[in-house]
User: Which sequence fits this backbone?
């Protein structure tokens, strides 16, 4: 009976395993959608938007000076003070919370709160009277019209601030700073966390051409030939390259992912605040991975294939299976279930058998492996498109950073999917959204 339950679980988890044929088809669809995003005539209906960032220069090591960075990408934001010297930098930073009331309040409230925290930070670090350049990492879908102008396309990650969608977030920040009238900040650049990751890695490794985030959300940017960026507003011949922010988390909202969507994905989507959107991200990122596992556990428990059919109030409550649990369970040595038992104990499932633990681990592996393979398929599309003989992918985000096998799963799968003869490596970004923001500001200042 026990072995039959395990066999049934494995059979039903096949939905979560991507075959080579399915991956090849997904790669074709991603490649098609990237081209649509880059094209002037197709951009409007494109699902992968491929926004032009107007960041055209990578760091070359000559950047010097004192810079602020503001990193807004979730329920907290960070302010950083960065000193760039010859091949070294030092950094001080502070994290500020964004209360729930502000996340769903007005845009003016949000930017006034940020400006107040900026002023407090500058006082604390004795730069209150300095005029400082600032790089602004804004990790939400943004249509950039220049290095310092970006219109918010849509809020994600639980934000719903009114009066921001469709408006220039740099201007909203400048207005809030001006309303205070007590600090001098020059916003030199707005970027998203993928661009920051790329820039941060490129400072150390000049071969870096892709910036990937696999954390709360999932997104990627890459270096494209400016001549291929049909929406580029300016002289396309002035500089050969431009970083493109794909916003690929939206992939699938037109049905392109229907060949791999499972009942668990559908349930996650239906219960999200942005149903029908960001479907690719919902199959990959840390905001949803734990919940995907929980939904599978609930389904198999109700079908009496797990825990003797005995669940718990904890297990049946949405959001209670954290993504960090997936990493912890998969960190157990093979055949050992120390972390798994601890997690199940926290969820009121101390009655789990050894076989239950093995099955829980298997479900976690199916969900996280699928996420790694989806990301790898997308990265392989970009590597094949760029045709560089050798390149580095800068990666950041909690899933990539903390999941024990994500890096290896990606390396193995990308190798299978890229054109012969291309070399690549994955480089963990050190604080891309902070250091990267300062570097974009520094490179912009280097121009002036």
Assistant:
């Amino acid at each position: 009976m026990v072995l039959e339950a395990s066999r049934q679980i494995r059979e039903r988890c096949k939905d979560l395993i991507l075959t080579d044929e399915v991956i090849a088809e997904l790669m074709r669809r991603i490649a098609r959608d990237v081209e649509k995003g880059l094209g002037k005539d197709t951009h409007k209906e494109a699902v992968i938007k491929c926004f032009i960032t107007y960041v055209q220069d990578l760091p070359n090591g000559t950047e010097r000076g004192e810079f602020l960075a503001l990193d807004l990408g979730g329920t907290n934001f960070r302010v950083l003070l960065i000193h760039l010297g010859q091949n070294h930098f030092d950094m001080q930073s502070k994290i500020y919370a964004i209360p729930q009331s502000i996340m769903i309040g007005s845009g003016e409230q949000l930017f006034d709160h940020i400006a107040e925290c900026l002023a407090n930070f500058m006082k604390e670090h004795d730069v209150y009277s300095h005029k400082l350049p600032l790089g602004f990492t804004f990790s939400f879908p943004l249509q950039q019209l220049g290095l310092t102008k970006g219109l918010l396309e849509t809020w994600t990650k639980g934000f719903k601030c009114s009066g921001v969608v469709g408006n220039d977030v740099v201007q909203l920040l400048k207005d809030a700073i001006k309303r205070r009238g007590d600090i001098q900040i020059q916003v030199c650049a707005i970027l998203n966390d993928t661009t920051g990751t790329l820039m941060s890695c490129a400072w150390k490794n000049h071969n870096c051409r892709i910036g990937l985030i696999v954390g709360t959300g999932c997104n990627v940017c890459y270096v494209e030939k400016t001549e291929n960026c049909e929406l580029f507003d300016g002289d396309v011949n002035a500089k050969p390259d431009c970083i493109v922010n794909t916003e690929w988390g939206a992939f699938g909202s037109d049905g392109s992912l229907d060949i791999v969507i499972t009942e668990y994905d559908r349930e996650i989507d239906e219960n999200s605040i942005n149903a029908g959107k960001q479907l690719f991200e919902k199959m990959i990122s840390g905001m949803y991975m734990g919940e995907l596992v929980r939904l599978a556990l609930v389904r198999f428990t109700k079908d009496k294939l797990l825990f003797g059919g005995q669940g718990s109030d904890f297990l049946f409550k949405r959001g209670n299976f954290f993504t960090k649990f997936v990493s912890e369970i998969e960190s157990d040595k093979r055949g050992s279930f120390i972390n798994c038992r601890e997690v199940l104990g926290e969820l009121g499932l101390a009655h789990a058998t050894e076989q239950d633990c093995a099955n829980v681990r298997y479900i976690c592996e199916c969900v996280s492996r699928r996420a790694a393979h989806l990301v790898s398929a997308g990265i392989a599309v970009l590597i094949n498109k760029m045709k560089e003989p050798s390149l580095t992918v800068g990666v950041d985000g909690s899933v990539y950073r903390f999941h024990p096998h994500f890096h290896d799963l990606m390396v193995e799968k990308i190798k299978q999917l890229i054109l012969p003869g291309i070399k690549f490596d994955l480089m963990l970004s050190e604080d891309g959204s902070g250091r990267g923001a300062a570097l974009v500001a520094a490179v912009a200042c280097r121009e002036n």
